[in-house]
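hi! just following up on the protien thing from before. the input was this:
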Amino acid sequence: MSHFILASNPKGPVPPGQRKGHDVLQTDPTKPQSLGADLRALRKQRNLTLTELAERLGRSVGWLSQVERDMSDPSISDLRAIAKALGVPMSLLFAHASAPAEEKGYVVREGSRRPMGSGDEGLREELLSPDLTDDFEMVHSTFAPKSAMQTPANRPTQEVGYIISGRLDLVIGGRSFSVGPGDSFRIKHEPYEWANPYDEPAVAIWVIAPPVY
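and the predicted 3d structure came back as:
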C-alpha cells in the first residue's frame, strides 16, 4: 500500500489531479502497493470497466485511469464517491499509514488492520492481507453472540475458514455443521449461511478466492 498524507490548500504548484480548497489523498507511485492498484483490483473484482465506473462517479475515463496509475491524486470527496460506487467502506481505501516503509506490502500489524464490510448482522471483518491485489484475500472475522446471517450467500468463490475461538453454526450446501476452536471448513461455489447462537463471540480466519471485497 502507498503511504499517504492529507493536505489542504497546499502552497506552491498544485499537483496533477489536486483541486484547490479540497483535501486530497496523495499517493506515492514509487511504492508497489498503491491506492491506484487497490482501486483497479476492486473494480475488476466487480467486473466493472473503466467506463462503467467513471459513469457511476460522473468523472472522465481519463481521470479514473490516471488515478488507477497513481498519476492523479483523488480528493477525499472523490474517495468517498468511489467507495460508495464499489460498495466498500471508505476506510478500506486507506493505506496502513503507521506501517514502517520496509513492512508495507509484507506485514500487517494487529492495530493496522483495515475494516471491511458494513458491520451488519453482528459481523466485524478486518483485512489481514497487505493489499487487495492478490488472487485471494485473508480476513479476520468476529461474529457477535446471538447474531446470524439474514440472507444466505452464494458467490462464485472457494473459501476456507479456521475457527480460533468460540463456536459457529454453518449451513453449507444444505448441510448443517457446528464448528469450534481448531476446526476448519470449506465452501466451494455453494450457498451458505452462518449463525452464532451462543453467549460468546466466535473468531475465525477466512480465506476467499477470488477476492470479493
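The domain at 113-209 is CATH 2.60.120.10 (Jelly Rolls).
Residues 35-45 form the longest helix (11 residues).
cheers
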